[in-house]
Design a protein that fits this description.
Bound molecules: inosinic acid, magnesium ion
Helix content: 25-40%
Order of helices and strands: HHEHEHEEEHEEEE
Number of strands: 9
Strand order of the largest sheet: 4-3-2-5-6-7
Number of helices: 5
Structural class: alpha/beta
Distance between the termini: 23 Å
Largest sheet: 6 strands, mixed
Low-confidence stretches: none
Number of domains: 1
CATH architecture: 3-Layer(aba) Sandwich
């Protein structure tokens, strides 16, 4: 990363070796904040008079969810679900394991699944099928990022923050080997950690 202030910072939060692999900033804090505010306004309009349940998919969506919830001017509730992600493979297999299920009953609830990034879309496709079977009044998706041209399944995404190029990215909740979730912007990661 060329900015000396940012490289010193990424070194503190991820160590020298990993920080060297942080490439260009794709989305700045400011850009993310602005877009999350717009998504919040859109959701507030669409769900006026309702009390949507935001379901974050852990762990990557925790930062986005926290900011999004505060941009929605409705009596929202939150719940969390954890699913196994890539594991040891570079790409999603579509075989998803639920590591932590929801605490709330979804019957008649307006559910908004909050995701960090949609790559193949297989994780989401599984989740949607799973949640639909729980008698929710509606299930929509709000994804911060969608990687262009990678989706293997045609999933309808009602709310999308940004479409991004194929680069692997970290920050704002997204990690490589568990690190860089606390990076406030979204940056390209040029190392191989995610392919192990
Ligand atoms: P999908 O099933 O292929 O759509 O995979 C989506 C999941 O993979 C996301 O929820 C992330 O946890 C993870 N993922 C995909 N791309 C990235 C990335 O660039 N950085 C960090 N995690 C990613
Ligand atoms: Mg995830």
């Amino acid at each position: 990363m060329s900015d000396p202030y940012i490289s010193a910072y990424t070194e503190r939060i991820g160590g020298r070796a990993a920080a060297d692999k942080i490439g260009r900033v794709l989305l700045s804090e400011q850009q993310i904040r602005q877009r999350v505010k717009e998504l919040g306004e859109e959701i507030s309009r669409d769900y006026a008079g309702k009390q949507p349940l935001l379901v974050a998919v852990l762990r990557g969506a925790f930062v986005f969810m926290a900011d999004l919830a505060r941009e929605i001017e409705l009596p929202v509730e939150v719940d969390f679900m954890a699913v196994s992600s890539y594991g040891h493979a570079k790409t999603s297999s579509g075989v998803v394991r639920i590591l932590k299920d929801l605490d709330e009953d979804l019957t008649d609830r307006h559910v908004i699944v909050v995701e960090d990034i949609i790559d193949s879309g297989l994780t989401l496709s599984y989740l949607r099928r799973n949640l639909r079977n729980r008698e929710a009044a509606s299930v929509e998706v709000c994804a911060l990022l969608v990687r262009e041209g990678r989706q293997k399944v045609d999933e309808e995404l009602k709310y999308v923050g940004f479409e991004i190029p194929p680069d692997f990215v970290v920050g704002y909740g997204l990690d490589v080997s568990g690190k860089f979730r606390n990076l406030p912007c979204i940056a390209e990661y040029t190392g191989a950690g995610h392919e192990e």
